[in-house]
Every structure is written in structure tokens, then in C-alpha cells.
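Structure first, sequence second, as always.
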């Protein structure tokens, strides 16, 4: 597994709530299935997100850590916007989370369907995700989005690294709320640095474990 393949693995759609009952999960098309999954993860609804993905341990872990880091990043970026009233952008004008999915990205994605398998390639990030149709519903192979090989060691590594990055985002959110930063740019820079640092430290720790045979 290439340990550092992803840094910001996020989703950013808002699911529409229901007043009296859980809304039906719409998996009618590949694009709609991805948007439904993205919205569930962004809202922290891991149960709904699980309904959108293919079965398997790697996909279960991908839902759990993806939802966790998505909500952590949402907390951090919402805190920055609330305090400074600025959208969170990187130096090139794109969102600081380059893997974030928004409705336009999905709606304009390049779609290739081959029988019961589909691939979506998002134009802004050029990231791809695979879906499979089962029992008339399109379900996301979420591990393909996170680039997680389907073996126990790789799954464990991915889970640990994403958990560390999520914790770093939560730390920045708390610091923003406590008034640590003078500008939105300072908060964003620190968030990027902390998440990169968390990824590097966890990568080194896990690599050492492998070398030591643990």
C-alpha cells in the first residue's frame, strides 16, 4: 500500500432531512448513489452511508473513517467560517480539501457504465470511484475512492492514518473556537500542517511496526 496517497479525503454534500421517518436512500443511478453517500457522510450518518456502499470489511472501515474525518473537517471549516466569515480556500482558489465532493462535481462527472459496473471521474479533482449495481441499486465501492487495498494490513493502516488526521482537524476546530488564530489564513495553514504532520507521524509509526514484525 502507498501510505501517503491521500491527505484530505472528504465529502461535502448536505442530505435533506425527514420530519417523521428516515428518507429513502436513493441509489437509482451511479451519480445519485454517490451524492447520497456523500451527503450521509457529511452529516455524520454512518448508518445511511453504509446502505450506499458495497458489503465488505474494507468498505465498512472506509465508511467509518470517511464519516469521521468528514465531520471533523466540517467542524473545523465551519468554525473558521463562523469566526472569520470567509470561505476556506487554498492558494489556488480551490477548497482546502481537494477531495471534497460537491453536487456540481458529481453532476458533471465523466460516467462510464459497463453492464453492472460504473466509474465516475470528477472533473475538478480527477479522482475516480467505482460503483456496482446489485438488486437494481447502485452501490459505491468506497475503498476505491480512498485507495484502500482489500487486505487486513492496508485496512488497518488506512484506518489509523485517517483517525490521526481527523483528530488533528478536531484540534484545530477547538483552537479556532478558543480564539487562537488572528486570521482565517492562519487557521487554514495550521490545519494543513497539523494534518500533514499527523499523517507523517502515523505513517512512520506504522512502518516501524511492520519492520519490527508487530
Amino acid at each position: 500500500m502507498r501510505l501517503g496517497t491521500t491527505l484530505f479525503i472528504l465529502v461535502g454534500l448536505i442530505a435533506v432531512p425527514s420530519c417523521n421517518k428516515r428518507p429513502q436512500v436513493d441509489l437509482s443511478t451511479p451519480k445519485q448513489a454517490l451524492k447520497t453517500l456523500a451527503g450521509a457522510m457529511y452529516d455524520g450518518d454512518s448508518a445511511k452511508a453504509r446502505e450506499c456502499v458495497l458489503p465488505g470489511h474494507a468498505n465498512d472501515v472506509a465508511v467509518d473513517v470517511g464519516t469521521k474525518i468528514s465531520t471533523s473537517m466540517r467542524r473545523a471549516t465551519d468554525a473558521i467560517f463562523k469566526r472569520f466569515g470567509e470561505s476556506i480556500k487554498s492558494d489556488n482558489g480551490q477548497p482546502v480539501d481537494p477531495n471534497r465532493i460537491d453536487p456540481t462535481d458529481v453532476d458533471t462527472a465523466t460516467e462510464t457504465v459497463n453492464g453492472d459496473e460504473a466509474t465516475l471521474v470528477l472533473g475538478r479533482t480527477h479522482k475516480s470511484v467505482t460503483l456496482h449495481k446489485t438488486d437494481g441499486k447502485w452501490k459505491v465501492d468506497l475503498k476505491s475512492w480512498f485507495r484502500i487495498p482489500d487486505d487486513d494490513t492496508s485496512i488497518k493502516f488506512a484506518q489509523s492514518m485517517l483517525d490521526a488526521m481527523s483528530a488533528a482537524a478536531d484540534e484545530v476546530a477547538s483552537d479556532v473556537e478558543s480564539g487562537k488564530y488572528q486570521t482565517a489564513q492562519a487557521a487554514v495553514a495550521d490545519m494543513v500542517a497539523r494534518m500533514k504532520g499527523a499523517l507523517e507521524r502515523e505513517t512512520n509509526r506504522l512502518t516501524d511496526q511492520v519492520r519490527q514484525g508487530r
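Margin note: The longest helix spans residues 57-84.
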